[in-house]
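Ticket #254: bound-state structure for magnesium ion.
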Amino acid sequence: MALCVRGRACQFYPAMARPDPIPLPALPQIDTWVFDLDNTLYPAACNLFHQVDVRIGAFVARLLGMAPDAARVVQKDYLKRYGTTLRGLMVEHRLDPKDYLDFVHDIDVTRVPANPALDRALERLPGRKLVFTNGTVTHAERIMERLGVARHFEAIFDIHAAAYVPKPEPAVYDQLLRDHAIQARRAILFEDMARNLKPAHDRGMTTVWVRVDSPWAQPEGDRSHIHHETDDLTEFLQALLGHSGTAKPPPARD
Ligand SMILES: [Mg+2]
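RESOLUTION: The complex was predicted; output attached.
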């Protein structure tokens, strides 16, 4: 069973391994659904990050006029010192972030499959839906077009909107809540990077970790900011809709 809520058995955690069960969030309490994009709305198995990573390396090598291996060392140093490669390039080289973001997201997204089951689940969720991504609006729109879910989303809060400060910087969450008039206690965030859920939890949002295998996505130490977790976003939403019994009926079909 892919769905895994604390205190329940699942394929990774045996029953009783997690005390303190937290029930699925009741839909009437949630009126804003916030989704990370990469490896959350589409499966990590699509491995789009590898394409982005290769293009980041190529961009840095070209910008600095270095061989790929030498540029990689500089890039990783920026990543360590500034949190993101982009921030390092902006501080050290006065880079125009738009050039970088356009280049690194110019990838093949055809490996993202349509997801009609996710489309149906989003249709039935009552309330607003937003995307909260460290990528760009253009990248998000291309992905959501492939998935077939773009029509459900009211807004995309991207790295441009965040003034190029990425999650999990807490101020970005405050800006998201403020800009879109979101009541934290009536909002839920789905995200594959466990650490990106902490500021949402701290502000009163419900959190769902969409588990992936990547080492950098795993929770470190205290897990109290992870309220729910799942291996499959669509299955989680389907279970939530079935659990609540308050969801809107599916749209009439011709
Ligand atoms: Mg992600």
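RESOLUTION NOTES: Residues 36, 38-40, 192-193 surround magnesium ion (CB under 6 Å).
TICKET STATUS: resolved
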